[in-house]
Amino acid sequence: MVNKPALDTALENIILDYSVSKTLRIKFKGNWLIATGLPKINEVIAQLSKSSDIQQLSFDASGMKEWDSGLVAFLFHLIRECEHRDIKVDLLTLPSGVQKLLTLALKVNEKVNLEKNEKQSFLEKVADKVLKYLDGALSLLNFLGEIAVAFVRLITGRVYFRWDEFMVILQRCGADALFLISLISVLVGIILAFIGANQLKLLGAQIFIANIVGIGMVRVMGAMMASILMAGRTGASFAAELGLMQTNEEIDALQTLGVSPVEFLVLPRILALVIMMPLLTLYADLMGIIGGFIISISLLGLNPVEYWQHTQSSISLNNVWVGLTHSFVFGIIIAVAGCFRGMQCKRSAVAVGEATTSAVVSAIISIVVATAIITYVCQVLGV
Amino acid sequence: MEESVKPVIQVKNLDLSYGEYSVMRNLNFSVNKGEIFIVMGPSGCGKSTLLKVMIGLKQPQAGAVLYNNVDFWAQDEIIQQNIMRGFGVLYQGGALWSSFTLGENVALPLELYSNLSARQIREVVELKLALVGLSGHADFYPAQISGGMRKRAALARAIALDPEIIFFDEPSAGLDPISSRMLDDLILQLRDTLGATIVVVSHELASIFAVGDKAAFLDTESKSMITIGSPKELLAHSKDSRVIQFLTRGGK
């Protein structure tokens, strides 16, 4: 039998000894530690492939210094490879610790019972997506139905409603958001005034900035800015809160107690936001007008009394109602999106994150779509 | 196992507190290499707080925790992190990262602290999962497997870097008797095969008697460790009614 030379540097910790007929003896040298690196197993497997007459594998660990489970991982895969090739492995030539670990690792493991997704064709993927969206739409309809039923039960006094908690949610949806609403609305008012000033200056009609800011804020911008802010703030918080409750099985606990989670958790949140959104919108309108007023007076040099009179005369009650309609619809959208995504949340940290993101994204998209619809309807009705 | 008399962990005059509320006073014990040490006591006695102090997540009010004669809390952050690299911790709920597969969970410590190639890391991951009986589950996410399997996967992550000391926080919590027994067997096998020193925080009597070489009993009322010894010997010879009541489920 020819003694083949030891391999290159990739196998510097190994000597392959072919001196015994039909047996490959692997001699380990030096340290075999995860921290310092390990030889690549495919180099050894390549040697096994080259020598097709090998029927037994044995080891010599006398030259080995320190080892850890890196060595065991190496042997674990080598032994499995040998099993495929019908090569016997003599474990008794290994240190006893290595033998014990290998015995433990090679024990019959729990069977993988979970089915993995098989590869799907393009059409199957498209069909899956469509069905998923349909499922989602049906779930949403179902959820809206549950909310409607819960609302009727609330009116007829058949719902266990915790008023204390409702007040806390009201505060979170309303008073706690005032600072942010003020900041954003004043800035939007300022932006509208600047944009209007540039155009109206060309016509010498700068005083009509008051009309642009007033009507713009009251009719749609106040409601829209407030709702986008609330979607990111309160809608996300609803989704995360309910999602985490889903993860912690708190919602299951309510159901087993015979309490409807929609009545107990969703209804107070929707009511609170639907009540607070019109109020926040009126506040946002006022702040926007103040923002426009400040800029018009201080930087554009307009007369404050004249500005105020123009604002008053331009804003009709119709405009206010249109703005409030927007805010009412937006309130429902944000609350439903937040609560729906939260209630649908799966039980993991990632799912909570996804539910939160999805609540904000779907709320904002729905707000823009709803604005377009309301604006078109108002146009048709001449409001 | 030849060096089994060498103390790997020494806890000296340790005081634990939450803010101004004192939890435990003047704890003293040591754990030898290759020993399975149980911290036991009733709920709320401070077992988990002690564990947090031992694994470097919470600073003690006073006293010292020494690992191989190095005072952990007296070191700077870099040395503390080096010491912590020798720890493996199995948290009560497993604490697997839910956005990672089981394989990725076990691989992360190897990617951070070894120079192995991606293929070698995969080989080590497969070994670690096989050691805890989860061979072939590397591509599953934590949400797809049972609670007992999650605990075992978390154990595979804890032993990814062959830690010198493995800490277990309530390993049997939430497990059925068979899974619990399986985990107890694994604890013993890891000690015997990896030669690891093991600290187990538990109040599960079956586990305490099955795996414990030595156990310390923490008492809520006196806020101190009232006894230490082999669980079986404590049951047979302890004269303290609190210890006997605990070890017999209030039976004597």
Task: Kindly describe this structure.
The complex is a heterodimer of chains A (383) and B (252). Chain A has helices at residues 41-50, 69-84, 96-106, 122-155, 163-173, 178-203, 209-247, 250-256, 261-298, 304-314, 317-344, 349-381, and strands at residues 14-17, 23-32, 56-67, 88-89. Chain A is of the alpha/beta class and 383 residues long. In chain A, strands 1-2-3-4 form a 4-stranded mixed beta sheet, covered by helices on one side. In chain A, helix 4 packs across helix 9. Chain B has a 6-stranded mixed beta sheet with strand order 6-7-8-3-9-10, with helices on both faces. A 4-stranded antiparallel beta sheet of chain B has the order 2-1-4-5, covered by helices on one side. Chain B is an alpha/beta fold. In chain B, helix 4 packs across helix 5. Chain B has helices at residues 47-54, 77-84, 102-113, 118-131, 147-158, 177-194, 205-211, 231-237, 241-247; strands at residues 7-18, 21-32, 36-40, 62-67, 70-71, 87-90, 165-169, 197-201, 214-219, 224-229. In chain B, helix 6 links the parallel strand 7 (165-169) and strand 8. Chain B has 2 domains: 1-75 and 164-252, P-loop containing nucleotide triphosphate hydrolases (Rossmann fold), CATH 3.40.50.300; 99-162, no CATH class. Classes of the chains: A alpha/beta (383), B alpha/beta (252). Chains A and B meet through helix 2, helix 3 and helix 12 of A and helix 4 and helix 6 of B.
- Oligomeric organization of the protein chains: heterodimer
Mean pLDDT of chain B: 90
Q: Find the count of extended strands of chain B (DSSP E, 2+ residues).
A: 10
The CATH topology name of the largest domain in chain B reads: Rossmann fold
Summarize the biggest pleated sheet of chain B: 6 strands, mixed
End-to-end Cα distance of chain A, whole Å, is 101 Å
CATH class of the largest domain in chain B, named Alpha Beta
CATH homology-level superfamily of the largest domain in chain B: P-loop containing nucleotide triphosphate hydrolases
Most extensive contact: A-B, 34 and 38 residues
